[in-house]
# Entry
Amino acid sequence: MSRYSRITGTGSFLPPQRVTNADLATQLAARGVETSDQWIVERTGIRARHFAAPDVTSSDLGVEAARRALEAAGRQPGEIDLIIVATSTPDMIFPSAACILQNKLGIAGCPAFDVQAVCSGFVYALTVADAMIRTGSASKALVIGAEVFSRILDFTDRTTCVLFGDGAGAVVLEASDTPGILASDLHADGKHVGILCVPGTVSGGKVMGDPLLKMDGQAVFRLAVGVLEEAARATLKKAGKTEADIDWLIPHQANIRIMQGTAKKLKMSLDKLVVTVHEHGNTSAASIPLALDEAVRSGKIKKGDTLMLEGVGGGFTWGAVLLDF
Ligand code: UT7
# Structure
């Protein structure tokens, strides 16, 4: 009998502080930085984002999302035998956010590690967990995307600081006789490192370089629309499916124009697009599981629906996962 992996529960968590575009514009104006609700909505679709309190970490957000996913799956933390956290904003340089989160769940022993693929992190992590389940190294995994991007934003740079937010989403992925995950397709091209990066690091007890996010938005935009279409088509081909088989498209939530552009290239109705960017902003590796959980809990996504998840971001990295929910 073949062994597959299937999502059995989803969960998400947003820090309580909701910051509207108007709130942000007022805060930025105090620093002499000019922006407006109109510009942000027209160019990105974002209306609000959530920011974590200064002492709240990615593992704090991630563990809340994980608890909700476990509850939805009807599982106890002690049943989990693999934890993967996708994050670019871990609590510390090491150990991983996954190890810290494991301890917060009150469990020990199972492998726990972070995946660093920026905004593609969740599709990378889901693909790794699927492979480990199919080969028998795990049977009940927690796969989490958790970020506090507010920590790495330059609030004097209006071209980036209005775009991102904090949050976490999680799924429980379990071994199953039936799929589940149908196919995935991951890629990276390191020659584009410079178009989206946080170039700083720590050395000799000091921050070396600039520890704040830099982005060439137009270069990222151009690359994103092309690779998201390619990854979706490659994944459908591997699964022997077509665009018509997709019930819901859940792309990385960065910009409504990129998301709608991808849906149009795939000749999909915009009604099949799951959109949370207006309320969350870009939460990097957390954006896909956050959108997935919202669509599940609102009753949009139903058991048996076919979902296309798609990530794209720094690295440059991109990829897609097609699954039956
Ligand atoms: O998570 C990884 C994936 N990331 C992405 O997918 C982001 C991809 N890129 C984008 O979403 C878009 O490129 C942005 C939203 C970042 C920018 O939108 P755009 O339509 O490409 O705008 P632009 O960079 O061409 O800027 C247009 C104008 C400029 O003014 P001038 O030079 O035309 O006078 C900017 O200075 O808008 C100005 N501008 C702003 N104005 C008000 C840039 N940011 C702002 C702002 N408020 N926040």
